[in-house]
Amino acid sequence: MADVRGMTIALNAGEFTEVLDFYTLVFGHGPDTAPLDDFLEWQICPGSWLQISTGHDRPGANNARVRLEVDNIEVSVKRLTGAKVPVGEVVVIQDVVSFVNFSDNWGNALGFYQLLSPRHVLSAEERARRDRERAAEVERDRAEEEAAAKPPAPARNPNLPPTGSGVPGQQS
To answer: pTM of the entire structure?
Structure first.
């Protein structure tokens, strides 16, 4: 499989002008492109886009949460709270990430996050080693489950003569 080179996150939302106003507030600027009359796009980072399709009768009818990486989570939260957008508590995972959740006016689950240390991106060799280790672990678990599922062999009664080959008329 080829490496992923980009990403789009598509959300359905309500009335065009309200959508435009809300997401302009979220990003701090208007859309990077609007290829259709009911479609707005913001480039999150090179190769990653948030696409908002407007005018839906049932906007926000999904369960996805889209989180957007920011340089300073406090500044981003302040921009939203200043506009009276309800924002959850900032959660900090020490030395890893800070994040906060909020929703748009149509129920789409969103959030901001700020990395507190650089991401460790696996090299191709590290990824291949990890995948091999995981495959071996899965195979061990499968073998253990099969062994546990097999009924034990019946114990031979020592008071009976040895069994034959199973073929009538032959003895072992």
So the answer is: 0.56
71 vs 146: CA distance, rounded Å = 50
Q: Give the pLDDT confidence of 27-38 residue by residue, as tens digits.
A: 988 999 887 788
Distance CA 104, CA 23 (A): 8
Give the CATH number of the domain where residue 12 resides.
3.10.180.10
Contacts of residue 151, Cβ cutoff 8 Å, sequence gap at least 6: none
Q: How many domains does the structure of the chain reveal?
A: 1
Helix (H) / strand (E) element for 154: namely none
**What is the share, in percent, of the chain residues with pLDDT greater than 70?**
84
Find the domain containing 53 and state its range: 7-115
pLDDT tens profile 13-22: 889 999 999 9
Q: Residues in the chain, how many?
A: 172
Going by the DSSP 8-state scheme, the letter that residue 122 receives in this structure is: P
Q: What are the backbone angles phi and psi of residue 56, rounded to the nearest 5°?
A: -85, 145
Does residue 2 lie in a domain region? no
Map tokens 């859309």 to a residue.
Answer: 31
- Residue 28's closest CA among 115, 118, 112, 98? 112
